[in-house]
Amino acid sequence: MMEFYFDDRTDSVDDGIHELVRNLLNHAAAEEGLTAETEISITFMTDEDIREVNAEYRGKDSATDVISFALEEVTEEEVLIVAEEGMPVVLGDIIISVETAKRQAEEYGHDYTREVGFLALHGFLHLLGYDHMTEEDELKMFGRQKDILASFGLER
Q: What is the pTM of this model?
């Protein structure tokens, strides 16, 4: 089971969305065979706030729908953080733009809750190491997203 920390910086996300994200990501964790006690934070932001994060940490001065920061990911000049035995593994942070989620839901012809679920799952899979930098990786990640959403009952 995962421990979730929600931060709504828009004051617009209700408990129903929190429950959907919690249930979907617990389902995804089970589907991925994740058995360790884990922690994850989900932050809901405006387009302007996520644009600032995107500019600062990714060098892209534009709003985006979702950003993930994996704590277990190690890049050059970083030190691997190893959890003590019995302590939960902190997977990382997922940031979702509420404004972009609403806009994309309308563009794609489904409801806002489905879009938030999709974005949360997309961010979660990034935290688990999935990526879409190559065509092969994209097919694997997007196929996995589709399978998990279908098995959860959150299809388009």
A: 0.90
